[in-house]
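Quick question, first post here. What does this chain look like in 3D?
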Amino acid sequence: MKVLIAEDDLTSRKMLESLLQKWGYDVCATSNGKHAWEILEQSDSPHLLIIDWLMPELDGLSLCRRIREKFSDYYTYIILQTTKDCSEDKKYGFKAGVDDYLVKPFDNLELYHKVNVGSRVITYEYKINESRKSIQKYAQQMESLAQQRAKQLVHTDRMATLGVLSAGLAHEINNPTSFISGNAQLIEKAWRIINEKIGNEVNENEDETFKMVCDEFPDMIDGIKKGVDRITSIINGLKGYARHGSTNKESFTISHVIEEALQLCQTALKYNVKVTVDCEYDSTVSGDKQQIEQVLVNLILNAVHAMENNEESFLTIKAEKKEKYVSVSVTDNGIGVSKKVINKLFDPFFTTKEAGKGTGLGLSISNNIIIEHGGELKCIPMEKGACFNFTLPTNSKK
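> Answer (accepted):
Ran it through. Tokens below.
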């Protein structure tokens, strides 16, 4: 325990120093109140003081008042040393903030016990402060945990809603698609019969429109069938999103997931975006295919939003097979990512988009998915645009 002595009488000061050091205290001493105040303003200053009432430059009561006004973060125990033993005088001292009195000439045993009382008060105060800090830290941890749980519940609720909507939408689309597909097959069969009947009768004198219809009709049927296949593929993707929540690990090639993610994002990509895919088709990983597809969809849509104001937009998706992992990067030539926010990108609900254009959950969810798969998602700074890269362990059996 460090003790500060402020006493202008040399004999009293030396006696106090000698006794306190004998009792195991760390002592610093001064002859006036001003110097005592300068010591108290320093870091690691004493919290137990023995000060004289009458001192040059700054008296004991004035020093006491200044201490109580200035230092509120921690408690300073003050023993006022005086020759005044009048109750009326002591009232002024207590009003100024004095904790105890030591009347000159003092008794050594009385000094010992008074200093011990001050030492206990300072020790209890320290323990209380430490307990308060621990409680505050614990409260902050609990608040942070509660916020994380709330965010997870919001995400779970949104994904559940998305699943219900996706499943319903897929069902509603699937019925008319089945009619279109069935009728397209009937038309194709009917056209073969019709074509056999009229094929030999079409000659150079036939109407040009009729000839064009005969020539183009097979391609029209083929276009309908491709359209149906496209709708079916999108429905399957929506069903995958509807099933999100139950992990379904399987082996799959990255190239196939990239193709499906691009198909789901086709509407956003068709507006002035040139897409380049550079993929090793034998890159096989094991995991939840739908979750990895979700990551790619998030990264692709983010890239499209970043290129909204471009005259020419370029999106490159590259997959490389390394020794024990597959590296997938999605690169755009959009507005890029500021270095100031790069460390916050994966925080839940953090977004650089305008209000109403983003929830701030996409990258956070994607990051968690990749981590759960044993990989890493990161943003690589670029002079123009942005590059998001994630890695996944390769399938050990491949």
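DSSP finds ten helices and twelve strands in the chain.
The CA atoms of residues 207 and 331 lie 53 Å apart.
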